[in-house]
Amino acid sequence: MKPEFVTSQSLSDAVGRALEISLRGADELLPQEEWVRKLQRAEATGTPLRIKFGLDPTAPDIHLGHTVVFNKLRQLQDLGHTVIPLIGDFTTTIGDPSGRNSTRPPLTREQIEVNAATYFDQLRLLLDVDRAEVRYNSEWSDPLGARGMIQLAAKYTVARMMERDDFTKRFKAGQSISVHEFLYPLMQGYDSVALRSDLELGGTDQKFNLLVGRHLQQEYGQEPQCILTMPLLEGLDGVEKMSKSKGNYIGVTEAPNTMFAKVLSISDDLMWRWYTLLSFRSMADIEALKAEIAGGRNPKDAKVALAKEITARFHSAAAAEAAEQDFANRSKGGVPDEIPEVTLSGAPLGIAQLLKQAGLAPSTSEGNRLIDGGGVRIDSAVVSDKGLKLPAGSYVVQVGKRKFARVLLG
């Protein structure tokens, strides 16, 4: 797995392993030669490298798509380097224009503080926070002031800013670009100066911003950081990138049973990509598992192993075992041990209305569509009559494979 340019060099086992871990699943590592030199220097001096990852708290929840970069941070942290999760409480007030075709509305300070606090809590699920250097970029950005901002802006040209793909497309299409949007990559780059980072991680959509950091570090007389971009993880549908707005995501705080079942819902092809980007198993182990599947072993075995690993990471091994049992029980038509209980009135109540009021369908029309598709069960019996009205009583209502509710109807 070592890249060609280092095969002729004499790398120590530790540096070779660190390079291999750095490259696993990565999109680009630039410049690779510089990263090798930094690793060699760290080994020779015993001084850990400073590895930065900025995250803007634009939403309160972290999903598995975000953890692709966090997994890499954790791997590098376990090698003994200093990882710096940087919470962009200042840059979020600007709004990152990356990949957008319109000006992004900034969040209020109150929204940012709420989201940042939630992010910090969730970081504990992803990193050893006690060994990490968690920072907030308002520390140096707020004191910068108007004069400092102007001096910073003087270190980058408009021509170079317009090399950014989304800015170029918007300009050619006659779409508005606010001047403040130019400040975002500058401020993200200035974070690298303030932290004296050796390596900055980000998604492929952040490459331009990461390169601005290299440029600004040189402008301020520092050794420039290397950049490591990680691919954007496809969501449950296997097509679009994982996103809460697209509904194809798994949140890191979701219930273990839900998390386990969602992982099992992905395609066999997508499973291997998730293994590379989300699993902590070695690539040798993953290749051996692939070979077993190619040799006739059921792909579901590999998917169950992945689902258990991910569920155990964010909950516990016991929770993962229980989630597997719960999934097996549901697959046989059983009812989970714990389901929400809903009390409704208005008996006799039409089935579509009951589904809506119980939160099992967003509307009565969707409830009717689910009934037409054979996806609704009451006390394990499939409902086929959309005109069904239920008298007062207690019912276990199931929609699809995952939604259950115990409805007490009065």
N-to-C SSE string, H for helix and E for strand: HEHEHEHEHHHHEHEHHHHHEEHHEEEEE
Distance between the termini: 65 Å
CATH superfamily of the largest domain: HUPs
Q: Over all CA atoms, what is the radius of gyration? A: 25 Å
Arithmetic mean of pLDDT: 89
How many strand elements? Answer: 13
User: Helical proportion?
Assistant: 40-55%
Supply the number of structural domains: 3
At CATH's second level, what is the architecture of the largest domain? Answer: 3-Layer(aba) Sandwich
Beta-strand level of the residues, as a percent range? 5-15%
**Cα shape:** globular
Kindly identify the CATH topology of the largest domain: Rossmann fold
Structural class comes to alpha/beta
Low-confidence stretches: 1-8
- Helix segment count? 16
Keywords:
410 residues, alpha/beta, Rossmann fold, Tyrosyl-Transfer RNA Synthetase, Structural Genomics Hypothetical 15.5 Kd Protein In mrcA-pckA Intergenic Region, Chain A, 6-stranded mixed β-sheet, 16 helices, 13 strands, 13% strand
Give an overview of the whole structure.
Helix 8 (179-195) packs across helix 9 (207-219), helix 10 (256-264) packs antiparallel against helix 13 (299-314) and helix 10 packs across helix 14 (317-331). This protein folds into 3 domains: 4-230, Rossmann fold (3-Layer(aba) Sandwich), CATH 3.40.50; 256-331, Orthogonal Bundle (Tyrosyl-Transfer RNA Synthetase); 341-409, Structural Genomics Hypothetical 15.5 Kd Protein In mrcA-pckA Intergenic Region, Chain A, CATH 3.10.290. It has helices at 13-23, 32-45, 64-78, 109-123, 138-153, 158-161, 165-172, 179-195, 207-219, 256-264, 268-278, 283-294, 299-314, 317-331, 351-357, 364-372, and strands spanning 28-30, 50-55, 82-87, 135-136, 199-203, 226-230, 341-344, 349-350, 376-378, 381-382, 389-390, 393-399, 403-409. The protein has a 6-stranded mixed β-sheet, with helices on both faces. 47% of the residues lie in helices and 13% in strands. The chain has 16 helices and 13 strands.
